[in-house]
Structure formats: structure tokens, C-alpha cells
User: Which sequence fits this backbone?
């Protein structure tokens, strides 16, 4: 086991190997590793961000849904109120219409009663005049006694 | 190596033959061609695949190769971040290189001990030692490089004076200066030596055991070689890991200012 010039040759070989590794092998590989590490970290961060975004969106969506629900409830309440109002209105309308109809009917009835009464009065006075004519015959002059007859007829009308 | 030993044949001849490197040159200028070739080849193998993965690297969905490379890169990066708290463009790539390269060199141990030398002998190579980390030159080349980096960073971060102070005044204060200096120097020197010897010793011993198993009769070899190979998978990974972690720790110690 002798130390000899092989040592020098081996040292040169070794230094060349180390130099080449340092220059051409180590940097690209370690760079690739670092870059991949960075990429993975970025990917994880992006995923995290996406998740938090999703949570936010979910929260917002829930808010929107809640608002929509309360609005819908308001609308339904308003509609119900409006419906009951309409019902109340039409009830009132119907009542006034009924009253009006009843009043008109009563007016009609009174009018008829009046007419019948007038007719009756006319007939009675004519009957009385006819009877008086029959009784008095010549003594009664229609033109002379018209005043009397009228007053009688008025009295009849008043009663 | 005792070059005459392999001529004697027999068990020791077989082992010595296997432990003799294919070399050229004389004295200090001997060069172990097999160590240089296999370590260079495995280093190129490592660079080729990792460079392929790195050039196609994407931050999107990774393919199989990129996935594998990234797994190792992330593993090494975790180790570095665990013990080293400064910023350095060198330490992590250095650790990755050490881990993969040492692992690959150790892995040569798991090829059948006779396969590659046999192929080599067919190509006319008398000796072939296929595991570069069983060569002290390979392990010390790395540990000494790491040691140089330790000294370099110690001086760069703390300055010559700061580093000198640390060597002279710790751990016992200025009154025991020579003692401190001795202790510190031994401590520093022990780092590369222990790094290099630990890896070498483990792999050398492992290889030796494979050779001893190969000396058994053919019908009995699997009984030992199979469990030892399984165990060795653990050892080679562990040794690569230990070398890497200790490198990181030593360099982060060099970065720490007391």
C-alpha cells in the first residue's frame, strides 16, 4: 500500500468532479426543487383562498336568501292585508247598495201609494159629484158650484 | 506490493495477485492505472446521469431520472442544512459528489471478485484491482482535498490570525500554548487521516473477505458470499454516507468562529 502519484491523479479527478457538480449539476436540480416547493406553496395558498372565498360567498348567499325570505313574507302580508281590505270594501259597497235599493223600493212604494190615493180621491170626488148630481139635478150648476166642489175635493185630499 | 509473492501460487498468491494494482512507473511516480481508470469512469458515469437529469430538470412533474437525482440532492441538502448553518455554494455539491462517487466506487466491490480481473486478463492486463476505494491513494486524495478545503475555509472565515489564535489558545488558554498547538495540530491532521483510512480499511477488509470466500470450494461459496454481499450493500452505503457527513461536519467546524 504505497502512496504515490496516483494520489495526485485522484485529487485532480476529484476536483474536476466537484467543480462540474458545483457548476452544472447542483444548481439546476436544487432550483427545480425550490421552484416546485414554491409552486406547491402557492397552490396550497390558492386553495386556501378559494375555500375562504367560497365560505364568504356562502355567507353572502345566506344573507340574500334571508332577505328574500323576509321580503316575500312582507309581500304576502301586504297582499293579505290588501285582500282583507278589498273584502271589507266590497262588503261596505254591498251594504250601501242594498240600502240604496231598499230606499229606492220604499220610495217607489210610497209613490205608488200616493198615486193610488190620488186616484181613489179622484174617484171618490167624482162619485160624490155624480151622487150629488143625481140628487140635486138641476139645482146644481157645475160652473156656479165649482168652487164648492173644489173645496170639498181638497178636504178629501187632505184627509 | 510484494511482487514476488504471487509467483508462489496457492491461497496467498491468489490474494496478493488480486490486491496488486495495475501500475506503471517507478517509485513515487508509480501510477495505479486501474484506480485512475475505474474512479474516472465512475465519476464520468455519475456526471453523465446527473447532468442529464439536471439539464432536463423541471419544476413540473419530474421523470424517473430526475426524481432519483432530486431524491439524492434533497437527501444531501438535508444533511448539509442539518449541520452547516452558513451559506456556501461549495459544500452541498461537494457532499453530493463525495456521496455518489464513493458509493459507486464502493459498489465495484459487489461485482464478483474474479469477473473483471478475468476479463482484464483476456485483454492482456496482468493485474486489475477494480475497487478504487481499496487504494489508499483514492481515499486519501479525497480526504486530503477535504483537508485543504478545511484549512482554506478556516483561514478565509477567521483570517490567518484568527485561525492561528484558535490553534494556539484553545482549548486551554494562552498559558498552555505549546500544548494547545500540539493538540490542535494533531486534531486537524487526524481528520484527513481518519477519513481516508476509515473508508480504505472498510473496503479493503470487505474485498479481502470476498477473496477469502472465493477460495472456498465452489459449492460452498454462496453460503458465505451471499450474506456478506447483502451486508456489504449496507457497508458501502454507510461508508459513503459517513465520508459525506464527516466532510460536512469538518467544513462547518472550519466555518464556525469561536
Assistant:
Amino acid at each position: 500500500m504505497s502512496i504515490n502519484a496516483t494520489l495526485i491523479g485522484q485529487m485532480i479527478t476529484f476536483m474536476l468532479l466537484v467543480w462540474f457538480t458545483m457548476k452544472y449539476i447542483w444548481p439546476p436540480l436544487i432550483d427545480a426543487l425550490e421552484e416546485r416547493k414554491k409552486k406547491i406553496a402557492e397552490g396550497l395558498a390558492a386553495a386556501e383562498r378559494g375555500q375562504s372565498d367560497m365560505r364568504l360567498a356562502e355567507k353572502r348567499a345566506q344573507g340574500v336568501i334571508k332577505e328574500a325570505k323576509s321580503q316575500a313574507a312582507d309581500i304576502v302580508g301586504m297582499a293579505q292585508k290588501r285582500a282583507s281590505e278589498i273584502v271589507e270594501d266590497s262588503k261596505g259597497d254591498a251594504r250601501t247598495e242594498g240600502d240604496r235599493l231598499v230606499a229606492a223600493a220604499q220610495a217607489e212604494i210610497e209613490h205608488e201609494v200616493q198615486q193610488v190615493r190620488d186616484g181613489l180621491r179622484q174617484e171618490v170626488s167624482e162619485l160624490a159629484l155624480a151622487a150629488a148630481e143625481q140628487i140635486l139635478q138641476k139645482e146644481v150648476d157645475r160652473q156656479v158650484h165649482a168652487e164648492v166642489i173644489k173645496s170639498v175635493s181638497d178636504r178629501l185630499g187632505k184627509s | 506490493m510484494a511482487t514476488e509473492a504471487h509467483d508462489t501460487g496457492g491461497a496467498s498468491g491468489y490474494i496478493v495477485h488480486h490486491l496488486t494494482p495495475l501500475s506503471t512507473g517507478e517509485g513515487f511516480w508509480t501510477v495505479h492505472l486501474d484506480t485512475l481508470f475505474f474512479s474516472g469512469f465512475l465519476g464520468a458515469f455519475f456526471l453523465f446521469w446527473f447532468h442529464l437529469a439536471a439539464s432536463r430538470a423541471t419544476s413540473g412533474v419530474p421523470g424517473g431520472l430526475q426524481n432519483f437525482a432530486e431524491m439524492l440532492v434533497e437527501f444531501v441538502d438535508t444533511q448539509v442544512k442539518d449541520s452547516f448553518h452558513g451559506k456556501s455554494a461549495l459544500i452541498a455539491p461537494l457532499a453530493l459528489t463525495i456521496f455518489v462517487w464513493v458509493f459507486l466506487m464502493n459498489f465495484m466491490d459487489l461485482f464478483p471478485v474474479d469477473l473483471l480481473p478475468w476479463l482484464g486478463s483476456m485483454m492482456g492486463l496482468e493485474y486489475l484491482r477494480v475497487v478504487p476505494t481499496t487504494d489508499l491513494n483514492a481515499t486519501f486524495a479525497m480526504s486530503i482535498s477535504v483537508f485543504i478545503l478545511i484549512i482554506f475555509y478556516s483561514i478565509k472565515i477567521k483570517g490567518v490570525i484568527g485561525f492561528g489564535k484558535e490553534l494556539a489558545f484553545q482549548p486551554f488558554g494562552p498559558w498552555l500554548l505549546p500544548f494547545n498547538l500540539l493538540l490542535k495540530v494533531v486534531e486537524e491532521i487526524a481528520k484527513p487521516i481518519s477519513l481516508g483510512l476509515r473508508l480504505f480499511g472498510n473496503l479493503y477488509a470487505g474485498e479481502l473477505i470476498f477473496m477469502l470466500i472465493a477460495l472456498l470450494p465452489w459449492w460452498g461459496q454462496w453460503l458465505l458470499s451471499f450474506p456478506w454481499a447483502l451486508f456489504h450493500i449496507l457497508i458501502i452505503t454507510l461508508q459513503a454516507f459517513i465520508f459525506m457527513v464527516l466532510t460536512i461536519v469538518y467544513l462547518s467546524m472550519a466555518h464556525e468562529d469561536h
About this structure: Chain A has two helices and no strands. The first helix of chain A runs from residue 6 to 136. The mean pLDDT of chain A is 89. Residues 92 and 134 of chain A are 62 Å apart (CA to CA).
